[in-house]
Specification:
Blueprint: E1 22-30, E2 39-47, H1 59-68, E3 78-82, H2 88-95, E4 99-105, H3 109-120, E5 131-135, H4 142-145, E6 152-156, H5 165-178, E7 183-190, H6 198-203, E8 206-210, H7 224-228, E9 232-240
Parallel strand pairs: 3-4, 3-6, 4-5, 6-7
Antiparallel strand pairs: 1-2, 7-9, 8-9
Length: about 240
């Protein structure tokens, strides 16, 4: 499990972004060649001139399709999405009947506002149909303790900066410890062979296993390579090393 840092920018960079820079991106789940199959369309507002949290990166639709294809198991499940960004996976889970909390950095109010905008674009009322909260990775603030009981934690491409790898792992370890039996399922884009998280997983007593991606997207007639855009993307599950 090796990761590479993406260049990041300050959220203030988006202040000058105009309305013309925003567009709505549509993602369709289900249907495929079977006209009678379930179908879901999600609309995600994106700001192409904004920071990384205002764009739907390739990892997100892959995780979203993974969840969609297990939609029967999501009904009434309590799910937290970390680093939600445009929140595609979490919104799909909510549309499938899960009780979802979408989270992003607590010191980036514009990112949290954009998550709320994504929810409203899909007829999900924040605070009613879905929750949006600010969290800080690695810091166990009140917002972390106020989270509900969780069955599943998800994230798409949250390992983009090695300086926050341990902060993410610490947060995940704490949440899994508080929610015995829960899992952390996430996608990540492989950008370099220079960084890995094995040592951190061992330090915080976590176990990771790879999830096969060969069948993901086939129910919707989707080729994952179209989303990957030439990148290598992996899907992993992290649990406590000793769940007992």
């Amino acid at each position: 499990m090796r990761f590479h840092m993406n260049g990041s920018s300050d959220e203030s960079d988006i202040v000058t972004a105009t309305a013309s820079a925003e567009h709505i991106r549509k993602f369709v789940f289900g249907g495929g060649t079977d006209a009678a199959a379930d179908r879901l369309e999600i609309k995600i507002p994106e700001i192409l001139q904004g920071t990384y949290s205002f764009y739907t990166w390739p990892c997100a639709p892959i995780l979203a399709h993974f969840l969609w294809e297990r939609r029967q198991t999501l009904v009434c499940k309590r799910i937290l999405e970390l680093g939600a960004g445009t929140a595609l996976p979490g919104i799909v889970a909510a549309k499938c009947g899960a009780q979802v909390v979408l989270s992003d950095n607590c010191i980036l109010p514009k990112s949290l506002a954009h998550i709320q905008k994504s929810c409203l674009a899909n007829q999900l009322q924040p605070g009613v149909d879905i929750d949006v909260v600010g969290l800080s990775w690695g810091l166990l603030l009140n917002s972390v303790f106020r989270l509900p009981v969780l069955d599943l934690i998800i994230a798409a491409d949250c390992f983009y900066d090695p300086s926050v790898f341990e902060d993410i792992i610490v947060t995940v370890a704490f949440l899994l410890e508080r929610n015995r039996g829960a899992k952390f399922i996430f996608t990540y884009q492989e950008r370099s062979a220079d960084w890995c998280i094995e040592a951190l997983l061992k330090k915080w007593k976590l176990h990771a296993s790879s999830i096969n991606m060969d069948e993901i997207g086939k129910q919707s007639g989707v080729d994952l390579l179209e989303f990957m855009g030439g990148h290598t993307i992996h899907l992993l599950e992290i649990t406590l090393s000793d769940p007992q």
